[in-house]
Design a protein that fits this description.
β4 and β5 form a beta hairpin. The protein starts with a strand and ends with a helix. It contains 3 helices and 7 strands, in the order ββαβββββαα. With 169 residues, it is α+β, with helices and mostly antiparallel strands.
């Protein structure tokens, strides 16, 4: 099976925050942002796997800064690690200053998507080879995040979580 790089899956969605998508403080609803992030992650996962994909979990989301009405929001997603049938997708959210066009990172998230066949059965996907320092950092962290998730779900014994144990020994 072929090996891909994170840049093969990169997905960028840019949109405007409209008044109907905001709360009483005129900031983008968190749920609206999550939906936009999920769409970008889905496209990135599909580009990597060339399969139907489904969201298995939202592992982490940080709402670090409010996104005001009228903002130009850019969401960038790409596969950070591929496992057998699942992929971790890292997504960064930026807003753009209207005058200077300077971009500020305001939020980020980590999603897990699974590639499935036409019957919904998980299917094998290509592996990934990170290239940049950030891609390598996210790739290495993905295995620890997966092991932590499996331990918390009771699907992996803590003594079997080798990557997690290495952090503490």
């Amino acid at each position: 099976m072929e090996v891909k790089t994170p840049k093969d899956s990169i997905t960028t969605l840019t949109d405007l925050v409209l008044p109907g998508e905001t709360n009483y403080l005129d900031n983008l609803f968190g749920g609206e942002l999550l939906a936009r992030m999920d769409r970008a992650c889905s496209i990135a996962a599909r580009r990597h796997s060339r399969r139907i994909v489904v969201t298995a979990s939202v592992n982490h989301v940080a709402f670090n800064k409010a996104i005001p009405v009228g903002s130009v929001v850019t969401i960038e997603a790409k596969v950070s690690r591929a496992f057998k049938t699942s992929m971790e997708i890292y997504v960064d959210v930026w807003i753009e200053d209207r005058q200077s066009r300077f971009r500020t990172k305001v939020n980020e998230g980590i999603y897990t998507l699974v590639a499935v066949d036409e019957t919904g059965k998980p299917t094998m996907i290509p592996q990934i080879k990170p290239e940049t320092e950030l891609e390598i950092e996210r790739f290495e962290g993905a295995l620890r995040r997966k092991q932590l998730s499996l331990v918390l779900a009771g699907k992996l014994q803590p003594n079997e979580a080798t990557e997690l144990k290495a952090l503490f020994t």
